[in-house]
């Protein structure tokens, strides 16, 4: 029985990277999508990879063997399109949603988010300055699917729109996360060519 799922959002176009395929950025000798799957497979019952189109699905095929790969049905909607298809395919009651460009994911933090989400609609990290981390968070699949679909149908593109529509989301403070990840590296992502040079070993 599947209790937890993960959706890896790999559909970004990497505009700030000169349109490089983000999912194939090399990290420690592997593509970042392979690295992310490797890290998360021990903490979740299934991994779903969300891609923007059939061309990207074909491109990533050799890097995602045995994984569910879903393709966006909505175009130019941003991450919400990928989240929607991932949620629709998810078998777990709770799902960790994460961008594919985070090379330092902390398993302990992911486990904490799953734990905090139990009995609620989600667990959302909130930074000290009040900024949310919606693409490194856990949601209850059913309610999040409904609010994401509603947001897209209403023309919303704002990533937090469906989350604000949930009734019961636990905010997880950085102090709690620092106990597991003192430098908060789990939230670091790759956005520029300089980042690739910094993180590639």
What does this structure look like?
α3 crosses α5 (141-153). With 201 residues, the protein is of the alpha/beta class. The mean pLDDT is 92. Strands 5-4-1-6-8-7-9 form a seven-stranded mixed sheet, with helices on both faces. A two-stranded antiparallel ribbon has the order 2-3. The protein has helices at residues 32-40, 54-60, 79-89, 107-117, 141-153, 161-164, 174-178, 193-199, and strands at 4-9, 26-27, 30-31, 46-51, 68-71, 94-99, 122-126, 136-140, 169-173. Helices cover 33% and strands 20% of the residues.
How is the topology of this model organized?
Layout: E1 4-9, E2 26-27, E3 30-31, H1 32-40, E4 46-51, H2 54-60, E5 68-71, H3 79-89, E6 94-99, H4 107-117, E7 122-126, E8 136-140, H5 141-153, H6 161-164, E9 169-173, H7 174-178, H8 193-199
């Amino acid at each position: 029985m599947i209790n937890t799922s993960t959706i890896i959002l790999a559909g970004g176009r990497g505009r700030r990277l000169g349109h490089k395929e983000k999912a194939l950025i090399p990290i420690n000798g592997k593509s970042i999508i392979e690295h992310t799957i490797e890290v998360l497979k021990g903490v979740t019952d299934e991994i779903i990879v969300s891609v923007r189109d059939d061309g990207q699905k074909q491109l990533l095929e050799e890097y995602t063997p045995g994984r569910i790969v879903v393709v966006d049905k909505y175009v130019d909607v941003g991450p919400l399109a990928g989240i929607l298809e991932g949620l629709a395919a998810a078998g777990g009651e709770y799902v960790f949603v994460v961008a594919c460009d985070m090379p330092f994911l902390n398993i302990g933090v992911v486990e904490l988010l799953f734990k905090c989400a139990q009995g609620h609609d989600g667990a959302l990290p909130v930074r000290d300055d009040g900024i949310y981390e919606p693409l490194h968070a856990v949601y209850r699949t059913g309610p999040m699917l409904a609010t994401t679909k509603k947001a897209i149908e209403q023309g919303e593109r704002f990533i937090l729109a469906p989350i604000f529509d949930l009734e019961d989301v636990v905010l997880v403070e950085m102090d709690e996360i620092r106990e597991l990840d003192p430098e908060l590296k789990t939230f670091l992502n790759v956005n520029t060519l300089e980042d690739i040079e910094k993180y590639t070993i």
